[in-house]
Every structure is written in C-alpha cells, then in structure tokens.
Design a protein that fits this description.
Blueprint lengths: L6 H8 L18 H15 L5 H17 L5 H12 L2 H22 L2 H12 L3 H19 L2 H18 L4 H18 L4 H9 L4 H26 L8 H10 L8 H12 L4 H18 L9 E4 L5 E4 L1 H7 L2 H19 L2 H13 L3 H18 L3 H18 L4 H15 L7 H16 L8 H4 L4 H16 L5 E2 L5 E2 L6
Antiparallel strand pairs: 1-2, 3-4
Length: 493
Amino acid sequence: MAHHENNEVIDEALGEKSVQRLEFRGGVFAATIPLVFFIIWAITLSVTELVTEESLVLGMVIGVALGLFFCKSKWADYAQSLISGMAQPVGVVAVIAWFWAGMFAKLLSAGGLVDGLIWVGFQTGLEGGAFVGITFLLSALFATAVGTGYGTVATFGILMYPAGVILGADPVILLAAILSGAVFGDNLAPVSDTTIVSATTQEADVPGVVRSRFKYSIAAAIPALLLFVIFGGGGDEGSREVITQLQNQVSPNGLLMLAPFALVLYLALSGHHLLTSLSWGIVVSIVFIILTGTSLTEVIHIYQNDAGEAVIEGALMNGIGGYFNMAILILFILAAAHLLEVAGTMEVIKNFFLRIIKNVVRRAELSMFGIVAFLNIFITINTAAEIAAAPFVRKLGTEMKIHPYRRANFLDTVTSSLGYIFPWSGGVLLAWATVQGAAEEYEFLPVISPTEVFPFVFQGWGLLIVMFIAAWTGWGLRYSGKNGEEVKPKDHK
C-alpha cells in the first residue's frame, strides 16, 4: 500500500495497547456477525446487480448495529471499540493513497494519456490479449515501484481500462489483469506496507524477505501473463463506425503525459515516500496540461450553476470525489474487524491451530496458510488482515523454528492475493468503484461487478497455489540456525 516511511504508523498499529474486552451472546464467534452480514449483503446485491457504493456502506452499518444486540458488555464499550477500530492508521494510509493516486490518474487522463494509449494500440496493432498482457506487466511494475496496490488499481482503472476496452480486450480479464498487477506489487514491493508488516512482525529484514519471496512471485507471474495474453482478447471492439471515428480523433499528443508517470516511478524506486512521488507527479502533470494548451478548468473549475449553487469540478476533484464512499466503507470494515480482537475470537483461533499442529512442520505451514486465509475472509483490507494474522504466524512458526523469511512469505503472499480476489475485498470493491467512475466519462465502458472478476485474478490465484504447494511439499522451507541464519531441512537438527 504505502512506503517505508510509514514504519512509525505500522509500529503504532502493531504496538501493544490495552483493549476493553467484550463479551457476546453466543460466544466469541458472535463478534463476526457484523462482517458476516456485510459479506452476505455484498454478495447478494452483487449477484442481483443491485449493488452501489452507498448500499455497501448501508450494509456495513446494519451489520455493526446487529452486532450491538449480541453484545453482553456495556454498549458504550462496544461503541468505543468501534471507534478504536476506525482510528487504526492502516485505514488512513489506504484512504490517502486512493485520494493521491486518484488525482494523479485523473490528471493524466485529462492530459490525453488515454487517447495516446489508444493511438498506440491502433498504430501498432497492440490489441486484445496483447494489450491485456502489457497492462498486467505495467501495473505490476507500477505497484512494485510505488508500493500501493490500491493506488495501482485507481490509476490503471482510469487509464488502461478504457483504452483496453476500445482495443478489443475482454473487460473482465482486463480488470483482472490490473488487479493481478496490484497483487504482484503489494506482495513484492520493498516499500509496500504489506511487505514491511510481514517482515517486521516476523522479526526479519525487508531486503532479505523480498529476495526470498521473489521465486514465489515469478512462479505465479509467468503463467498469469500467458493466461492474460491467451484469454484477454475477444472483447467487443464496437462498430467500425465508432472505431473509425476514434482513429480520426485520437492523437499521440497525450503520450507526453508519460513523462510525469515516469517521474513518479523514478522517485518511488529511488526511495521517496508515496505521497512525495505522487505529489511531484501531480504538479508536473498540471504543468504539462497548461503547456499543451488544455484549459485549466480541466484541472479545477469552481463556479456557480444556474441554481446559484457552488460547484467544484475538474480532475483534482474527480480524483478525490470518486473514493469518498469507499473511504467510509473501509473505516467501518476496520471497526467491525477490531471486534474480533476485543472479543477474544483471535485467541480462540490461535489455540485451535496450536492443538492440531502436534509438532509436524507441514501441519504448521498449512495452518499458517489457513489462518491467514481465514482472517482475510473477514478483514478485507490487506494490511489490516496481515496485522491481525501476524501474531498467529509468529507463534506457530517459532514453535517449529521456521525461519522468519518463510513465515513472512506465508503471511504476505496469502494476504496480498486474497485482498484482490474476494468480491467483498477492498481491492476488488475499489476496482469496481473506479470503473464506475470511468464509465461516467466514457459511456461505452461496461461496469464489471465484483463477482464477475474474482475467478480471473490469475496472479492472486497463482500465488495461492504456489504457496499451498510450498507448504505441502516443503519447497523453499528454511529453518532458523543458531545465529538466525537460514538452514536447509537436511542440515536442521
């Protein structure tokens, strides 16, 4: 999600804090009622094609209200726990990343980059599956550089999704390619919050963790790329009349906006903070827009409409405004997830897995895989889910002397994958909201529902398969030596 300068934020989120224990009618698992209700609500609305951002927020609010009636403790304590959950820094980091990335992407679009990409496609024949494959590679590069999967979804959903649909890409597979790029970067980027959390909670160094997990990332990425190229075509390019009209309209001028895009990549790879990189990208984008003669009202336009009401429009406002509802939803999800901690649900889960391990390494690693996946069902923001799962992974792993790199990899790969797979996860809902916003600007764009896209997030599913095989077969297994070094199984005593 964000950058290594967020370490203090992450440490604060991971730090020991006193929590007011809550008791629920029906036991500790009754604390899951708000999240279970939201998941059922979200899937039902999505399947019936009645889902909206506001309805998702309403579902989460109803779920939280239902949980209140199952709480045996003081309702004031329940309310305070919700507020503490909302105040977690990981939620703020996600929202800020969306806002900055949204503004940057909208400015690139206002500068004509989408038209430029379409022009390239027409001139080179880079269409259909080939365009989807390129989209996966570019989104993976961007996510790895800036360290934010959510920001990648926002940026590429605004830029590459419209261009790809015009160029004959299958809309569902194209959106899945963008999500897959986000998975790759969130999992591998040294500056990603998920990478930092997975390393620090397992007492490992970030560079070593990244080096050790590269083989898993690539093992999933190569087949994912092939699948995107093979199945990414077949989209409806539209009538020849529309295509001909577009060919006459688009020009390469918008490709100038690749300069601020490249600048953001360079700054991020050079170790600058996410907000620093994107802020410079925003400034340079505005300069380029002005130099190319585009009206400044494309950037920001404040005026009174015919009814005398104040109106603010333009790329900056659209970039932020498209994520207000999602920001509210994320805060409520974090609040509901916090109930699992204060109710003691997490402790019960940990003890269950400790009992079934019985000093067998394979069981320990499969248990780590399972517990991280289980928590991601309920906690749909990847960094928050990772923070919740980290103590369990550390406890199970240290019992069997599994090396911190290995533990960190199970924690991060599973979390990074499922955060962009489940239809109710933050990454998928963000992609859906982004496409909705893009469809308001480009009427020809189809809006893909969350339930349509999740089977095709090939990088996410590939990583899950790779890590399951690693746990089952022991591929890549390393133990901790006397001095903390990695020790192969045959040398482990």
